[in-house]
Fold this sequence. Notes:
The protein is mainly alpha-helical.
Amino acid sequence: MPPPTQPPPPSPDDAEPSVAREMDDEDLVEELLVTVNSARAFAEFRRTQRKECANLLRWLQLVLPLLEELRDAAPRLTDDAYRRLALLGRALSAARRLLRSCNDGSKIYLALECETVLAKFRSVYEKMHSALDGLPYAELAISDEVKEQVELMNAQLMRSRKRTDTQDMELSMDIMVILQNNEEERNADRAILERLAKKLELQTLAELRAETKAIKKIINERNGQQADSTKQIIDLLNRFKEIAGIDEKNVLGDVSMPKSLDKCPSLLIPNDFLCPITLEIMTDPVIVASGQTYERRSIQKWLDSGERTCPKSRQPLAHLSLAPNYALKNLILQWCEKNMVELQKREPEPAAGEQEDNKRKEDIPSLVDGLSSIHPDVQRKAVKKLRMLSKESPENRQLIADGGGIPALIGLLASTDKKVQENTVTSLLNLSIDDKNKLLITRGGAIPLIIEILRHGSPEAQENSAATLFSLSMIDENKAAIGSLGGLSPLVELLRNGTARGKKDAATAIFNLVLTPQNKARATHAGVVPALIGVIDDKALGMVDEALSIFLLLSSHAACRAEIGTTAFVEKLVRLIKDGTPKNKECALSVLLELGTNSKPLLVHGLRFGLHEDLSKIAKNGTSRAQRKANSLITLARKL
């Protein structure tokens, strides 16, 4: 038997090519250290990405001892070690860019694109894991202690790549409601906007001014691309500024300047020339008691709305006098003349309108007194006028509340006159925009009476009762109170049989209430599951995503899941995954994943309808969140 043939030695062409080295070993390690330390310098992050940023910073901290030992030992790097460290460098640079974006980027963009941003975090985790997995510790003279630390971190990175995170469902639902509402603005929508502004920390002038600058940067970078997304961002910013009391129509133009400035966008306008409220060049600058300067028209509106603090410094104003800033006005005029900029000419405020507003405000005390009149006609006229006034301005709402209007209105909720009920509950809805009024309304015993109107009032009174319960439920303790007092049952009835507007109000209120665990069981007992299925089946209603969002919350509760988890419902989800809109698919996948994770037979049943192919398509072409859910379902299906 001939001896076995030995394989020929590898030719140079068969050998693995050497790694192209752009810098020497010491410079590479030093650059990694600089990147990590500069990334760790970011400390404050946007609320929507705060958790992921904290995780990433913790892992960067764990990488630091590895790099410090490499710097101190200065071993000669093999091609494999160099390649891995170069890959780690790219991952660390991506991490630094991501942390910077979450540190000073647009809060609105980061909230709208939270799934896309999360995908970027996962990409960083993937690159870090690939670089560190199989690192030749021995030849790099790395200590056992550091090796164990890095390997533990790498295992955490591996798990993080597979983690299915829990969204901030309340934030997502709020954004969905605001963006999908194409009808005339409602006060309930203002309440949602106020909650969004609070969550995104876009309430003060400084916060909104920084957000404006961040959005301008995004628009410049996009260079006309992604117009729909940009329009959404601008619209939300304008609405946040509106509820903050900032009178600013075109916040993203060249500081809302005249068209003459459009021809010279590179012109640098001194910051001192811009009113802190409108961000426009001042034409009539005045000094307030705090020493800050504002455009007269803007600060006067601020003061007329009942504010008694300096908008910029938030200091209480010792007096309300406005002193002309002649020195600054002359500087502005000289600068405009030198740069050939024509200042905007403003129309004076109509005196008649101001007089009419003042007269209305003077009427408020007598109208509040009229609520307690023994004459029904006086009550009807008073509550109708208060409904209108409470919608107009924060100052009116404050005057009504300070004048004892809330207890008087609560007393009228029990009226047998349907129109009085409707105007009363709508007035309370308007007043509930202000948080302190929410507490006064609930402590005054209004919730049971509002629930009674929700059961038996006119269609408009029922709609506004649902909107009021939603507004009041923004305070967590009220969620439990509304549920325990029987508020979910009539909301479910409105969702089932109300007007289109009533169904939308009911769905929004139910979503907010079932964020509290005990209300999940109450809603299920009240029949919310068949009511939501009816909403999904009514295609003309256009509320599929809202219904699925509520289903997702309910499916996290074992008792609710038992009622939701039927084969018929799974088949409905499958049809939406196959034929729904991209957002329908994303929401349906989320619910199916929650159900399938807890009940394998339900997932098996869904897969029988040829779902594999649809999951593969969505995993490649769906929205960012839908892709992750589809991939999770594919992984789960393979284990069955």
